[in-house]
Design brief:
Helix content: 25-40%
Number of helices: 14
CATH class of the domain at 123-280: Alpha Beta
Strand order of the largest sheet: 1-14-13-17-15-16
CATH architecture of the domain at 123-280: 3-Layer(aba) Sandwich
Shape: globular
Strand content: 15-25%
CATH superfamily of the domain at 123-280: NADH-ubiquinone oxidoreductase 51kDa subunit
Oligomer: single chain
Number of strands: 17
Distance between the termini: 51 Å
Structural class: alpha/beta
């Protein structure tokens, strides 16, 4: 019997239109824009100025604190501007703009495709290399990887879990990566195991990716301590707490860190990036992005340089269809609609989803019928209808008592609501307000 988590969850239509599309390399963009806050935590600090020459892999911005990440140039060329620029959601943020000239890489980067299985660095050196390389969680959360690898001293990791579930509908970038670079992922897994001092790792893959499961099971035979776990296809199994529950049968207490169960969770794309950083000295300068949706001429999985304009990548996939109603950064469940197609692709962009009016249109909300579906599908065991109502009425203190901050914002509640209630919208408003209250309380 396939493993899965215990509470809630849904199985939306998968729409994995690009599941069998191999990774396609995209031409180097003429210009890239690198936002300094494309990760969770403090924005990076720019260390270049207009007119500076850079190569692929040149450090252009240093981490602005422990919870922050370095940023490297994904192209060679000239820094043309250091200024404010609008991100995908129209919010202006400090940005480094680089005009491309050729494709010259830093000499220290090993560009060969030969697999390097020998892990020579110590755990401390591995974490230092990951820190220097600007690696963040590539599943979308963009939490700096080195921070996860150094949990509070009261917690001792006992196992590594690699999240290869890719439970979001439409997205297939992780699937394509597993088929293209299985051994690099496994070596990356071994590197992460060494960095946190554990001897066992699980790679969780949902059962709708049977080819990836079979390939990694075959490859993993030569890597002791790594086990491939086939999981029942169920959303949101990629959530850390849900994945730990599914694989270890342990539940993370409300407000506790996932490592309290002994598990450190990393995305499969992050494991690959760690391999490239430690074994090839390559910082995070590119990634795979799924471009898919209604009417796209060439949907696929594209390896792109970070900072490339979203509009240009859409053009590579055939251009924006005339009946486009919404463009989403990420998947349909947890992704967000964007307003600026000229914004750059950040580290956490796993997909670009194009929807027409038929799929983008929200149904007209009607009164709650007290059916309880939102409660039954909530993977955190919350009462979404109540949290939404409290938020709508600005009863934030009560919302805090009802554990609104535990919400994953997965959207299962809104997806399942027969009355088309904007449950998640209200919860997000309330969650933001409660988090502000908590921060104010800590500062006083």
């Amino acid at each position: 019997m396939l493993k899965t988590f215990r509470i809630g969850g849904i199985h939306p239509k998968e729409n994995k239109l690009t599941a069998q599309c191999p990774v396609t390399m995209v031409d180097i963009p003429r210009q890239v824009s690198l936002m300094l806050n494309q990760h969770i935590g403090a924005p990076a600090k720019c260390i270049v100025k207009k007119g500076d020459l850079v190569k692929v892999g040149t450090l252009v911005a240093e981490a602005g604190g422990f919870v922050s990440a370095n940023i490297h140039s994904p192209v060679s060329g000239t820094v043309s501007k250091v200024d404010q620029a609008a991100n995908a959601f129209g919010v202006c943020t400090p940005t480094i703009v680089i005009d491309t000239n050729g494709d010259e890489w830093e000499e220290s980067i090993d560009r060969s495709t030969e697999l390097n299985e020998t892990i020579e660095l110590s755990p401390e050196e591995i974490i230092q290399k990951i820190t220097q390389s600007g690696i963040v969680g590539l599943g979308g959360a963009t939490f700096p990887t080195h921070v996860k690898l150094m949990p509070p001293k009261e917690f001792k990791p006992t196992v590594l879990i690699i999240n290869a579930t890719e439970c979001e509908p439409y997205l297939t970038d992780d699937h394509a990566l597993m088929l293209e670079s299985p051994e690099q992922i496994l070596v990356g897994c071994r590197i992460l195991m060494k960095s946190i001092g554990v001897n066992h790792a699980y790679i969780g893959i949902e059962n709708n990716k049977k080819d990836a499961i079979a390939l990694l099971e075959q490859m993993a035979k030569k890597y002791p301590g790594i086990e491939i776990v086939a999981l029942r296809t169920r959303y949101p199994q990629g959530g850390e707490k849900q994945l730990i529950d599914a694989i270890l049968h342990k539940q993370v207490a409300n407000g506790a860190l996932p490592v309290s169960t002994g598990a450190i969770v990393q995305n499969v794309g992050t494991a690959f990036a760690v391999y490239e950083a430690v074994q090839k000295n390559k910082p995070l300068v590119d990634r795979i992005v799924t471009v898919t949706g209604d009417g796209i001429a060439r949907p696929g999985n594209y390896r792109v340089r970070l900072g490339m304009p979203i509009r240009e990548l859409i053009e590579v996939a055939g251009g924006l269809p005339s009946d486009t109603s919404k463009v989403i950064l990420g998947g349909p469940m947890m992704g967000k609609a964007i307003s600026n197609l000229d914004a750059p692709i950040p580290k956490g962009c796993s997909g670009i989803l194009i929807l027409n009016e038929g799929h983008a249109h929200r149904g007209t909300p009607s009164p709650c019928i007290r059916c309880g579906k939102c409660v039954s599908v909530c993977p955190m065991g919350l009462e979404p209808y109540l949290l939404a109502k409290l938020s709508e009425n600005h009863l934030f203190e009560k919302a805090e008592k009802e554990s609104i901050t535990a919400c994953l914002e997965c959207g299962c509640c809104a997806y399942s609501c027969p009355s088309n209630r904007p449950i998640l919208d209200y919860i997000r408003i309330g969650k933001n307000a409660v988090n502000q209250i908590i921060r104010s309380r800590k500062q006083s």
